[in-house]
What we know:
Elements: H1 3-32, H2 50-93, H3 95-106, H4 111-117, H5 122-135
Helix pairs in contact: 1-2, 2-3, 3-5, 4-5
Amino acid sequence: MTLEKLSSYYDLKLLIDVLKNELYELRSKAYKVKAVSYERYGDSSPKGTVSDKTSGYASSIAEKEHEISELYEEAEQKRAEIFDYILFTVAKEDVLTASVMYWRFIGCLEWFKVGQKTNMSGDAARKICMRYIKNHKK
Length: 138
């Protein structure tokens, strides 16, 4: 499995986090929209009003939630595929490398944290992982 394929779950999780932040901002904006008294302007029918903004935010929020939901499903498929590869292919040859790959590609940890989890330096963990990927390209 290539580095790109192994990193796909990690990349999807990062994208989901970005979209969650955007969703949070949309919700914050939607909740801050205040009601306006239309009689004050001599018009009882709203045109370009708060309800237009609210419905715009509602549709944007719904679209963003749908996009996040789809990405969650895709991410879980990628996670299962990568986990199976690590568990049934890598672990049979080298448990330490499998542990490094698990923490990096499934746990989504930075290299120095992977090193901490596996009792080595982050650089050593990265080198072990990259060496395995290089030697087992298909």
